[in-house]
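Incident review: delayed structure delivery

Summary: a single-chain prediction request sat in the queue longer than the usual turnaround. Root cause was a stuck worker, restarted by the on-call engineer. No data loss occurred. The affected request and its eventual output are reproduced below so the record is complete for anyone auditing the incident later.

Affected input:
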Amino acid sequence: MNIIHVIVLAIIEGLTEFLPVSSTGHMIIASSVMNIASDPFVKLFTIAIQLGAILSVVVLYYKRFLKSLNFYYKLFVAFIPAAVFGVLFSKKIDSLLESALTVGITMFVGGIILLFVDKWFNKPTIKEEKDINYLTALKIGFFQCLAMIPGTSRSAASIVGGMSQKLNRTAAAEFSFFLAVPTMFAATAKKLWDFHKEGHVFTGEEIKFLAIGNVIAFIIAMLAIKSFITFLEKKGFRIFGWYRIVLGAIIIGLIVSGHNLQMV
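Output delivered after worker restart:
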C-alpha cells in the first residue's frame, strides 16, 4: 500500500459509507484495479478510516448529540442486535468477507429493492428522530444486521428498515447516520484489538497512512452526507438502485469471466 492507495480508498470510504451503495463493493473494485496486496494492515485500514466518517456525523449533527440522554438510549437499543449477532456469527461473517461473488449478488439484489422502496413505504408518519420509540429503534437495529452480509450496505439496510417502520426518507437516513456512530466505532475498536492481539505493531508509515486516511474520509463524508440528504428529499432511491444493479452486474461479470477479485 502506498500514499496514492490511501488517498483513493479514503475518498471511496467517505463517499460510500453513508450512501446505500455498499462501501465494501467499491473497495473490492478499487483494490483489484490498483492491485493492492491484502495484508493485516490493509484490512485494518479499510475499517479504521471509518473513524473519520464517524466524526463527520458527530460534527454535522452535534446539536442532536447534545440534546438528551434519550437520544443515546435509542441508539444503544438499536445497536444491540448488531453487537449480539456480531459476536455470535463473527467467524461466519469473516468467511463471507472472502467471497466477492456474495458482494456482487447482494449489490444486485439490493439495487432491485431500492428501485421499489419509495413505492412500498410511501405513507410515513415519523418525520423526526424524537418521534422514534424504543421498539422502532430495535427493529431498525435488526435490519442493520443484514449488512453483515457483504455488499448489502449498512446504510441501505438501516434506511430501508427505518422506512418500513414509517419513517420518512430523511428521518430514516439521519437515524442511519446516528446509528453508524456506535456501530462503526465498535467495529473499528474490535479490528484494532484483533490487530494488536495477533502481535502486529504499527510502523511510522502506517500511522501516517491512518491519519491521512481518516482526515480525507472525514472531509469527503461531510460533503457526501449533506449532498445525500438534499438529493434524497427531491429524488428518492431509484438512482441508487440502478447504480447498485450495474455495479453488482460488473462484479458478477468479472468473476464469471475469470477475474480474481481480491477482498480487502
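Verification: The mean pLDDT is 86.
Action items: add queue-age alerting; document worker restart procedure.
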